[in-house]
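Entry 14. Ran structure prediction on the chain below.
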Amino acid sequence: MRNQDAGFDYHRYRKLLAEAVDETKRLALIDLLVEERARDRLEAQRAADRKAMTAMTIAKVLGASRA
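Output, structure tokens:
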């Protein structure tokens, strides 16, 4: 079995898949997976942006203190 992503709720998705017995429920599951993946990617991008802004601020402060 492949490594499970920390943010991926394998058991929850497996249960939802088992319950998706008709087209409507299958489409709802697909929408849920897409939405949650998009939210995870947005959260990761925001974290990267915060880190970059922090690094820029530190660089500015250190540059100003050396001048």
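The longest helix spans residues 23-66. Will compare against last week's run tomorrow.
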